[in-house]
Amino acid sequence: xDDIEILEKLSQRVIEYMNNDLGMIDINEKFSIxxxxxxxxxxxxxxxxxxxxxxxxxxxxxxxxLAKEMVENFIFGDIDTQTLESLASENVAETLNITLGNIxxxxxxxxxGGKVEISTPYTMHDKVSIIKNKNGKMYLSTIRYKxxxxxLSYFL
Length: 156
Known about the structure:
The chain is of the alpha+beta class and 156 residues long. It has one domain: Chemotaxis protein chec (3-Layer(aba) Sandwich), CATH 3.40.1550.10. It contains 4 helices and 9 strands, in the order αββββαααβββββ.
């Protein structure tokens, strides 16, 4: 597996999931992946560690507003503001967990017989910045939805 294969497949799956499963049809189906030195995450960021034959950390980050909109599209019926806010970060974590789980079997390392273990998602609030390790690699995929950025990252 090359370093960006996982982000390419994850970006495509997140777009598909948000469009088809969450009904967020204004999502831009184009995305760009860049090698970066640092990532400044949005208001809500979720990280999942990978171990085994694929090592690294996958991340997803969105603004508070987009996190709330994702919940509104995920939940049927009306919910109060307090519940909406409490579910917002959990929904981002669940979205990353679902979409990552959906693409794992499509990665060349797994198709070649490799194995990967996925950690429990870890969610951070407020804007968090991560700097690339001196000998590490860090990639960022940006997907546009209306005037918002959905950030997907992979670093090792």
